[in-house]
Fold these 4 entries.
Entry 1:
Amino acid sequence: MDFSQAPGLIYAELSLWIRNAIRFVPELAVAIIVFVFFTFLSRWLSRGMVQGLRRISDNQSLVNLTGALIRVLVVAVGLFVALGVLGLDKTVTSLLAGAGVIALAVGFAFQDLTANFISGTMIALARPIQVGDTVETNGYTGKVLDIKLRSVVMDNGQGQTVEIPSKDVFQKPITNFSRIGLRRIELTAGVSYIDDLAKAQQVATTAVARLPFVLKGHPVEFHYRNFADANIQFVLWFWINPSTTNAQAALSEAIMAVKRAFDEHQILIVFAGQTFDLKQKLTNTQPGS
């Protein structure tokens, strides 16, 4: 081979490539325009579909899922049309023919990702939870902000968001505090052995029942549980609407109300390790003291 001819051959080859590329520019430009058009069309159709479905369905998760699928399908159609404009018909056919094989390979390679997508779809259809619900799942409690195909996003009430894989949410137990619209709050404490138990029960239930957020259609329940070393333990139950009342705030208000009422009626809340002069109180409460 005569290496002196190499520059000429390289120049000729590059010139051929450049001429072919220049002839290919119009088709490439049209293909790009077609793909961009379908991209904007997918957003417009997805937005219109979402707005239309919101008028006839309150399933926000299913509405978002449908909008996402519409966008993906339209963009896929745009991609195939753009490849057709470029004359890559065989490539389009190969892509369609290999789609099943690729999907199978992806399914095996990304089993967790596939499981999350399927679980997200089932959550959107079955609706065990909805956007706005307060739930407890996988050790997290919070308000559901978004239900995606791959995950569920929650506000944990501490200034952070928690994103849980859809598979874990779908396969594990869920406590939904918003589905029924009621939530029972439990307050536990104990009174001293020298106090009148009936009086303590009446004072505590009256104090909690007067709180404005306690649901009036559900009576406040007060039950003694057992005899402990330092006190007689009790549990007090009351009901709130979790959509309008924070559970922790309600419990805090109830504790203050019970403590205030017990102080007014001289009822002791005794816990193990506390030292109260019970004999002195007993002496002061006896007749003639």
Entry 2:
Amino acid sequence: MVRRRCGRHRVRVGAGQRSRGRLAGLAVALVAATACMVEPVGAPTGPAEPPAPASPSTEVTRADGTDTVEEFEQDMADATRLAERYWAEYFRASGRSFQPIRRIIPYERDGEISCGGQEVPRNNAVYCTVSDYIAYDVNWSFRAFRQIGDAFVFYLLGHEYAHGVQTRLGIRYEFTIQQELQADCMAGAYLGDSVRAGTLTLDEGDLDEFNEGLLAVGDDPGQPWFAEGSHGTPEQRSEMFFRGYERSLAACDLG
């Protein structure tokens, strides 16, 4: 059994053990920059535009000397593998074939990669529909990993992977907020169902930490719900995540 710590509690994925910063310590400024650059939903086309593989910088790695680049990379790989397994089983049960998202790409600089001709900025994690990849700013993600814990990695990957599944299912919405809240629900279902299946283990207190983190990443007060890029209020994001966590995909209106 591989063990991962989240705050004072463990997130375990199917062996190693380590401590994490508390999810309650999440800084709004750190995560509020997260955006999901999703082109109009449709069949993925065209090649991805990947940079050379990136790793967190040494300067960031030595922030407090307790968590390593290797641990972060392993957690990202674990989260990816768990998501691929989860969604492959869902598609198989519904009589459809499933193709995993083509690539998970770490990057470091503004404009290092692009999606449909649009540069991907730093301090971000995105799913690119036109090239079918997830990209994440590796240094920003690693800082969040250090501050929040490995739960952040599993939620982040789960949310962006959900956008890839929306594409595969042909789900289209008029407003961004509808797509984003559904992805939060799907991320919750992926984690909740994985816990119920025994492929992921959360210890007592981890759900409270998830809630605290989700409440910190909602849209700023006054953000119009109909604006392009809106993700939902803190309360909406937490509600949708836990709706999926508790009730599985039946709560996510996948059709």
Entry 3:
Amino acid sequence: MDAGTFAAVLAVMVRVRPMAEEERPSRREGLAAGIADGVRLVARDPVLRPALLLTAAAAAGLLPVVSLLGPLLARSAGWGPGAAGLVGAGQSAGVLAVALVAARRGPLRRTGVGASLGLAVAGVGTGALAAAPVPAVAVLAAVVVGAGSSLFACHVGPLVLGAAPGSHLSRVQSALTLVQSAALVPATNVLGGLAHAAGARSALALCAVLGGAAAAAGLASPALRMAGATTAARANAGRREPA
């Protein structure tokens, strides 16, 4: 079944494979030069730079919560593998619920605010998971974690792609994936080591603090607070221009 979903994605990619002409690189531009150009754009852009930093914080502080720390918490608390599975299912339920609402109603107009609020919600859920006394509470906390992470994901994508120029969409998307992977790999090892040394609840508490701090930083950034509204205003202005 999993392979079938990848095949469906491949079919869609083949169907839409023509690249936008404005994004086709010059034949003289090498791979290294193209990568460097994308990195320079992200580093200098007032919206893309903090958006990718938020993505790194989300990857480090959210992705390991249920996949790594949830099972470790269940084992250390003596809840058993069934409880660990329910915690994972709770997160999936939260992700799906928010994704369905976003698909129906669309993201918030201010996508930067929506992404930051998603991190805040996930941070609250992670803190509740760290303090959960029984499996039922842990499952409910995991639902909140999933809802927050889905709220973040539903807004950070439009935020990043809306701020990227048409000539660099693929490069910015690649940078987004790279930042997420680069943050996740070391964070997983650090959190696993912390859970081994001080317990899974301590590692979860650290993730909750990281999520809350990232959310506060995002809401404090003027560029992120206005992101989305500014893009929409430019688009509306462009539509009002005479042909």
Entry 4:
Amino acid sequence: MRDALRRTWLIRATVVLHLLAWGAVLTAPALWPWALAGVALNHLLIAAVGLWPRSHWLGPNWTRLPLAAVARREIALTIDDGPDPVVTPLVLDLLDRYAVQATFFCIGEKAARYPDLCRDIVRRGHAVENHSQRHRHYFSLLGPRGIARELQAAQDTLTAITGQRPLFFRAPAGLRNPFLDPVLTRLGLRLASWSARGFDTRISDPARVQGKLLSGLQAGAILLLHDGHAARTTRGIPVVLEVLPALVASAAAAGLRFVTLPQAASP
């Protein structure tokens, strides 16, 4: 409800501001610098909100698991940017060893390149969700049609490969704009970001990544790591492989249980 109120307020305020600015310029042309400044500030605000991945101002956004999942002492491990032919199989083996279920936000083009690997993710009990078709760095600059094409293509690709239609979407780098939420609604997708991320595509020190993920770890957390674009340690080992054992041990010590996002959404 609060998400809807925030989104409605922001969109209505934007529309009203544009109408007022247009009316001011028509009735008093000398006011055009002030009208332009007001519109520019409004666009900067919307851009800033879109650049904040955990924001709820542009629509519903899973930054934590639902209250029912919190009550069950559940947390979610999400893994982005795969599937990767080298890293993903090693991650899956680790998850099997610790009996942990995770949610893989897969890129459609990569899934099409490695379909057997994508199917193996599902076969081992994990969830495959939508991370766009091409993972374009300028995703947040796309218009409604461009966003719809990216999400629909990934939906079709991942569904055809795994036989399961994704229920969640994570924007590339978490960046988005006001056009995303209506597309998600039309496709029946939920936006999911995270409560903690390890920055493991840039940080090659496993201890630093662990610290970021474990700081304040509690029930309801959504944790973000990467199998695609994974940073390597000084020994050339993908950071995610070094971090997972300590992460699982810490969660177990805190009495927390890993679930996929679809499982967390269940009553």
